[in-house]
Each structure stands twice: as structure tokens, then as C-alpha cells.
Amino acid sequence: MLDFGFPELLVIIALAVLVVGPEEIPKLMLGLGRLMRRLSYVRYAFTQQFDDFMKEHDLDDIRKSVNFEARDFDEAGEDEAYLSAPVEEEEPKAGE
């Protein structure tokens, strides 16, 4: 999504120096750092709240019961049972 290469980064830095000015860049970078730290904390708090909710309501059992990979499932045995089941033939319809 945000795939910046070195040339793009140089263009952004050059534009920042021209638009903002060299005196204001440290303040701008400090503000951006604080913003990124806050966003990171909000993301952490949200995931922690979600995990606490799952533990509080014992929903881990539901999540594990839906996870088909965690269950012991004999796919070959189920295929064999399906293939060995008797096949019901359909009766021809009137007019055929």
C-alpha cells in the first residue's frame, strides 16, 4: 500500500524542506512521531480489549469448535462412506 522507494523518499524530503522550511522540520517530525505512537497504542488497546472480551465470555471454545483444522476429521473415511452409500435411482417422469 505505502511502497516508497528511496527516490520517492528524497522527493518528499525535498518538498518538505521547501514547503515547511528547515527550521520547522524537527517540530513536524516530533509531531508525526507522537501521532504514530498514539495510533500504535490505540491499535494495541483495541486488540487487548477484544482479547479480554473473548476470554470474559469464554468464546475461545466456540472459536476452536469452528476451526476445522483443529478437529480430528478423517477425510478419507468420510469419502469412503459417501462413495459406498447406496445410490437411489430416479423414476422417469411421465411423458419421457
List the helices and strands and how they pair.
Layout lengths: L5 H14 L5 H32 L3 H7 L8 H10 L12
Provide an overview of this structure.
- The radius of gyration is 30 Å and the shape is elongated.
- By secondary structure, the chain is mainly α.
- The chain has a domain at 10-67.
- The protein is built from four helices and no strands.
- The chain is 66% helix and 0% strand.
- It has helices spanning 6-19, 25-56, 60-66, 75-84.
Binned, the helix content reads 55-70%
The beta-strand count equals 0
Beta-strand content estimate: under 5%
Question: Quick check: average pLDDT?
Answer: 79
Order of helices and strands: HHHH
Distance between the termini: 60 Å
Largest sheet: none
Unreliable spans: none
How much is the radius of gyration in Å? 30 Å
What's the shape?
elongated
Structural class by helix and strand composition: mainly alpha
How many separate helices?
Answer: 4
Question: What are the salient characteristics of this protein?
Answer:
single chain, 66% helix, 96 residues, 4 helices
Gist of the model:
By secondary structure, this protein is mainly alpha-helical. The chain has helices at residues 6-19, 25-56, 60-66, 75-84.
